[in-house]
């Protein structure tokens, strides 16, 4: 099965949270309510340094995806 790069998710146990699931490497979920990120990958020290520099980019991509999806609902 082919998955989209980002998936929008919510959960009634977290009524204020909006989750974006990133399905490609590095896989993660971000809670847009507080920008908390949960990684599904394990990283070594070399990966962690690169990840630190890319995290802001991943968060921006997730936020852009959310904004695009909400704009499509409004249309």
Strand content: 15-25%
User: N- to C-terminal separation?
Assistant: 29 Å
Estimate nothing, just give the exact number of structural domains: 1
Uncertain residue segments: none
The mean pLDDT is 90
Helix content bin:
40-55%
Reported for the largest beta sheet, the result is: 4 strands, antiparallel
Order of secondary-structure elements: EEEEH
The number of helices is: 1
Rg (C-alpha, Å): 13 Å
Number of strands: 4
* Global outline: globular
The spatial strand order of the largest sheet comes to 1-2-3-4
Structural class: alpha+beta
Overview of the structural elements:
- With 75 residues, the chain is an alpha+beta fold.
- It has one helix at residues 45-74, and strands at residues 6-9, 19-22, 28-31, 36-39.
- The protein has one domain (6-74).
- Helices cover 40% and strands 21% of the residues.
- Strands 1-2-3-4 form a 4-stranded antiparallel beta sheet, covered by helices on one side.
- Strand 3 and strand 4 form a beta hairpin.
- The longest helix has 30 residues, at 45-74.
- It starts with 5 loop residues before the first strand and ends with a helix.
Structure at a glance:
By secondary structure, the chain is α+β, with helices and mostly antiparallel strands.
